[in-house]
Amino acid sequence: MVKGLMIMLLVFLVVAIIGWVMQLLSKAPEEKKKKYRKNLLIFYGLFLIIQGSVTFYESVEFEVLSIVQLLAGIVLFGAVTFGKYEQNLKSEG
Fold it and tell me: What is the pLDDT of residues 45-74, one digit of tens each?
């Protein structure tokens, strides 16, 4: 019971930290938001590439999910770094 309570408190703490960071980022200028978004997508693409390649090389059988992760990571990383991923944010008013 104590272990479950500790896990629940840890999850609440992580969610509170994420909410606090998101509140800070909402007040940031638009250029800084674009920079953070680009860095996050590059990191996520690299994470998918690493996770897919490790899963592919460690598995004995052919796993489609590892190939999909690897390809998605390569596409995401390539799209962000080569400038194909651009968000057009139009302000209303």
Answer: 999 999 999 998 988 888 899 999 999 999
Burial annotation 47-74 (CB, 10 A radius, 16+ → b, else e): ebbeebeeeeeeeeeeeeebeebbeebe
CA distance 66 to 58: 10
How much is the pTM?
A: 0.67
Q: Tokens 């978004």: give the residue.
A: 37
3-state SS, the chain, equals: CHHHHHHHHHHHHHHHHHHHHHHHHHCCCHHHHHHHHHHHHHHHHHHHHHHHHHHHHHCCCCCHHHHHHHHHHHHHHHHHHCCCCCCCCCCCC
